[in-house]
Amino acid sequence: MAHSAQLNILEQNCPIQVEHDRKRRQFTVKLNGCHDRAVLLYEYVGKRIVDLQHTEVPDAYRGRGIAKHLAKAALDFVVEEDLKAHLTCWYIQKYVKENPLPQYLERLQP
């Protein structure tokens, strides 16, 4: 079942909605209706460890803060589910450096 979280940043007068598809292990933001989407992929690499592997935003939508919302949603998921995270994705590594919240830092795997 997909879970939606409404965020307060507006994209062409429409709020950015991050959807979490647990079955497919991904967070997505639908762009331009349903035609394009931004995605953050993850995998379980242990019983309570997720690897945040890859974030992708289509070129036409880059620089608008969409990846930040995906990263925040994924890290909030890690915190809420009491998981540990390995950060393969360079963008999420950068996000954590720019947002060094204790609840994120204590969940990181080397």
TrEMBL record:
Residues 19-109 form the N-acetyltransferase domain. PROSITE patterns: GNAT_YJDJ. Pfam families: Acetyltransf_CG. InterPro entries: Acyl_CoA_acyltransferase, Gcn5-rel_NAT, GNAT_YJDJ. SUPFAM superfamilies: Acyl-CoA N-acyltransferases (Nat) (SSF55729). It comes from the Eukaryota. Belongs to the NATD1 family. PANTHER family: PROTEIN NATD1. This is Protein NATD1. It comes from Vombatus ursinus.
